[in-house]
């Protein structure tokens, strides 16, 4: 019974993420924004959760169980990048620089969120 509850919550999480992804892609195409629809959808999700003030259990519990396996989601992207053999050396250098900068920005954002969350939890 417990796994059935988790499955229902995971399904609700997938539907929620799919809705935000679809809305992000719709905004990207209709407004001709230079950002990918997935990024726009993710920002909309962050705005919605920030406005809500907490993460609902039906969204948080499946995420907590999937988070330790997050690195597995990078494997298809890495394999896809290694299959690109039309890039010259300069393009590879730009790709590595882009990956480093995006990694650094992600690290900074996560650190700021963690700092804010721990400060909020101490109150």
From TrEMBL:
Entry GO CC: plasma membrane
Pfam family, one: LrgA
Name this protein carries in UniProt: Putative effector of murein hydrolase LrgA (UPF0299 family)
Keyword Transmembrane helix: yes
Localization annotation: Cell membrane
Record carries keyword Transcription regulation: no
Topology of the protein relative to the lipid bilayer: Multi-pass membrane protein
Cleaved signal peptide residues: none
Transmembrane segments: 7-27, 33-54, 66-84, 90-114
Keywords recorded for this protein, A-Z: Cell membrane, Hydrolase, Membrane, Transmembrane, Transmembrane helix
GO terms, molecular function: hydrolase activity
């Amino acid at each position: 019974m417990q796994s059935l509850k988790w499955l229902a919550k995971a399904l609700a999480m997938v539907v929620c993420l799919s809705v935000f992804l679809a809305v992000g892609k719709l905004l990207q195409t209709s407004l001709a924004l230079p950002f990918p629809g997935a990024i726009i959808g993710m920002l909309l999700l962050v705005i919605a959760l920030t406005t809500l003030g907490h993460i609902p259990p039906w969204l948080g519990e499946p995420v907590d169980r999937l988070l330790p396996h997050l690195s597995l989601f990078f494997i298809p992207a890495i394999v896809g990048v290694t299959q690109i053999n039309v890039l010259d050396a300069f393009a590879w250098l730009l790709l590595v620089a882009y990956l480093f900068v995006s990694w650094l920005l992600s690290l900074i954002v996560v650190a700021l969120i963690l700092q804010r969350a721990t400060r909020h939890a101490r109150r």
